[in-house]
Amino acid sequence: MPTPPQAARKPVTHSLHGEDRPDDYHWLKTQGRTDPEVLGYLEGENAYLAGVMAPLRSTQAAIYAELLSHVQEDDDQPPVREGEWLYFTRTAAGQAHPLFLRRPAQGGEDEVLLDLNALKAREGHANVWVYAARPSPDGRLWAYLLDTTGQEVFELRVLDTRTGELAEPPLTGLSGWTLAWAGQDALIYGTDDATQRPFRIWRHRLGQPQAGDDLLFEENDPTFRAGADLAENGETVLIASEANMAQEWWALDARDPAARPTPVLARERGTEVPLLTDGGDHWLLLTNAGGASEFALKRLPKREGATLADAEAVLPYSPERYLTGFHLFRSHLLLAGREGGFTRLWVLPRTAGGYGEARPVVFPEASYTVRIGANREYDSATARILYTSLTRPAEHLDLDLETLETRLVKATPVPHYDPAQYVAEQVWATAPDGERVPVSLVRRRDTALPAPTLLYGYGSYGAPMDPGFSLSRLPLLDRGWVWAIAHIRGGSELGRRWYDAGRLSNKMNTFTDYVAAGEHLRAAGVAGDLVAMGRSAGGLLMGAVLNLRPELFRAAFVGVPFVDVLSTMLDDSIPLTTGEYDEWGNPGEAPAYADMRAYSPYDNLKAATYPHLFVSTGLNDPRVAYWEPAKYVARLRTLRQDGSGELVLKTNMGAGHGGSSGRYDALNETAEEYAFALAAVGGRL
Q1: Which of 128, 158, 261, 489 is deepest in the core (most CB within 10 A)?
Q2: Distances (CA, A) of 294 to 343, 357, 371, 475, 580
Q3: CA 491: distance to chain centroid?
Q4: What band does 165 get if pLDDT is binned at 50, 70 and 90?
Q5: What is the DSSP string of 518-577?
Q6: Phi-psi group of 404: left, alpha or beta (phi > 0 → left; psi -120 to 50 → alpha; rest → beta)
Q7: Is the Cβ–Cβ distance between 232 and 257 less than 8 Å?
Q8: 659 — pLDDT class (breaks 50, 70, 90)
Q9: In whole angstroms, what is the distance from residue 639 CA to residue 613 CA?
Q10: Residues 6 or more apart from 139 whose CB is under 8 A from it?
């Protein structure tokens, strides 16, 4: 067995709020990701990982082959109409990246707009990502945001579809939050400040130098971030400046090349308006104003000085219905939300006087996930929606907004998969404070219980982990495993209250909910060996629960993990920090510091017997910097007691938060983790 690397210990003491916090590995942050000593340590960890995985590569190859066998390599995504064209992406066998195409809506030949594989080869990039792409109103131009490093700093390129060449030199240094057309010859985009906080919104006139672009909006409060989008009716660019618990809205006439933004709603801390659009003679919005904690749907008259006090309810508020989004059409409103822990859709007709009764869209399954898909036609009488469950691959459906009937546009093809062989269910765990926590399960029907169980969790930002199909689970399910998803507080599965009960001073609920889910699966005879998995804020979850109950798990996958919470949240020069005080708190204040100090994984590591751990990161990650997992692993190597499992750190040296951009690389990374999991449970590590 290879010898694991040992990072140099360079003692530093952080002192705040009367506490001295020793940190022997602070240098992994301060010396930077280009420093030879830092790179040497990360490369040493990668070499150690290679040694650990060497005897498992045949298993990894077999799992990769299984994963690939379930991928329809030659495939088109369902086209979405925009103007006179249908836009879609295509994957081809042997090609790692998609092609972006279009065809005339009235019939005709496919036209390739962008071949990412060719671009990657031609320009010599290790990875390529397209975050957004938008055609001009007449379809003559096609704009897209391109990232080639994983650092989430973008170029804006504009293709002239008549010539196949770029219409002008790329704009550089852009944010990935904003891309919209304002008329035929102007683009709206955003840029970041030094901490990668989106804070400026610009208007670019085609053919003009970037240096001469119009600055439309600038947000100087470091806890707010700015973005913009075109309203569904195509008449208004809506600019939002938002923090986690407040938003401010401005409107820009998209038809006037000289227009300046005008205020719609001012910000008010604690009063949220997360979604707003142009309804013609009114603004349509969601808000928690007036005690509507699960959000109300309201309309605000378009008159100067109007405030939320002037807004009228579009439908009666219900605390049992958590509203999360909508899409406006000329004749209907499609509304999204949650009831009873599951996603729901409603349709409201638009009438001369406003909006009619909300009618629910009904589906036959008891447990499913449905959401609003890509819709670009304001005058459409149908809406694209997406439907899935734990055993049912995603289906693209067209919903008739009048009859509420659905038509299957395309079911995601999954070769060599028979849904009848698998079964899904939901169980409930009891948290220490008595709260009931839902847990979704999927397994093969012939799996004998108890079985090895992978328990996935996230539990932050109000992001729900809804029960949906994933082909990447199949190699484990087909080997007799159970896949479980813990719907813990900090997400929003049971509404906004579920989110609020798992943030700030309530954050510990997230971790104890997850532990309770694992304990329940053991006690109920579902789980044998438990394997934990989480990424990003879910990586924080992993670190925290491993400190609480390391003996509960056989192994854990700690992906791009937010594990050095205090060091990150005390540094307002790095991405995300100031914008996330509403999520975690500001540790410059003593009460918030104490909350974070109680669960920060790096600061609560102790001498203990730990399970097998597979920790991963990306060198270019702008969201959770490489040094967080690197410091975590370095300290953990000094604290693991005899009997602890294997500990590895994988650093993707050419990617960021999401890992490799190519689909084959992504499959291979999944196969590597599963090979590690099988070996951990099988006693081969």
Answers
A1: 489
A2: 14, 19, 18, 39, 21
A3: 12
A4: very high
A5: HHHHHHTT-EEEEEEEEETHHHHHHHHHHHH-GGG-SEEEEES----HHHHHT-TTSTTT
A6: left
A7: no
A8: confident
A9: 14
A10: 82, 83, 84, 85, 102, 161
Of 304, 329, 326, 331, the C-alpha closest to 315 is 326
Query: What is the Cα–Cα distance from 391 to 470, expressed in whole angstroms?
Result: 8
> What burial class does residue 87 get, using C-beta atoms within 10 Å of its C-beta: 0-12 exposed, 13-18 middle, 19+ buried?
buried
- Note the pLDDT tens digit of each residue in 23-43: 999 999 999 999 999 999 999
What pLDDT sits at residue 134?
98
**Nearest one of 575, 503, 573 to 540, comparing CA atoms:** 503
- Measure Cα distances from 266 to 240, 308, 593 in Å: 10, 10, 30
Q: Which amino acid is at 350?
A: R
Tokens matching residue 156: 């804006």
Nearest to 453 by CA among 513, 519, 529, 542: 529
Give CA–CA dist 64/262, Å, rounded.
53
Mean pLDDT of 238-258: 96
Distances (CA, A) of 84 to 102, 137, 139: 10, 10, 8
Note the pLDDT tens digit of each residue in 632-641.
999 999 999 9
- Distance from C-alpha of 534 to C-alpha of 603, rounded to nearest angstrom: 19
Side by side, the strands of the sheet bearing 225-230 are 225-230, 236-243, 246-253, 262-265
**Joined tokens for residue 540:** 């924080």
First-to-final CA distance of the chain: 10
C-alpha–C-alpha distance, residues 682 and 685, integer Å: 8
Q: How far apart are CA 205 and CA 258, in angstroms?
A: 11
Instruction: Give CA separation, 115 vs 8, 122, 130, 161, in Å.
Output: 45, 11, 11, 14
Q: How many Cα atoms within 13 Å fall on the side-chain side of residue 655?
A: 20
What sign does the dihedral 163-164-169-171 (CA atoms) show?
A: positive
Q: Are strands 246-253 and 359-360 parallel, antiparallel or unpaired?
A: unpaired
Q: State the burial class of residue 214 (Cβ atoms within 10 Å of its Cβ: 0-12, 13-18, 19+).
A: middle
The amino acid that residue 544 corresponds to is A
d(CA 339, CA 362): 13
User: Among all residues, which ones are annotated catalytic?
Assistant: 536, 621, 657
* Residue 141: both structure tokens together: 């131009």
- For 537, residues 6+ apart whose C-beta sits below 8 A from its C-beta are 458, 459, 460, 461, 562
Per-residue pLDDT at 161 exceeds 80: yes
CA angle 99, 102, 107 (to 5 degrees): 140
Q: What letter would DSSP give residue 148?
A: S
- The answer to whether the beta carbons of residues 631 and 625 sit under 8 Å apart is no
- Cis peptide preceding 450, ω within 30 of 0: yes
pLDDT tens-digit map of 473-509: 999 999 999 999 999 999 999 999 999 999 999 999 9
CA 358 to chain centre: 29
For 157, list phi and psi in degrees, rounded to 5.
Answer: -110, 140
Q: Which amino acid is at 486?
A: A
In sequence order, what are the beta bridge partners of 80?
87
Query: Of 563, 531, 559, 540, which Cα lies nearest the Cα of 670?
Result: 559
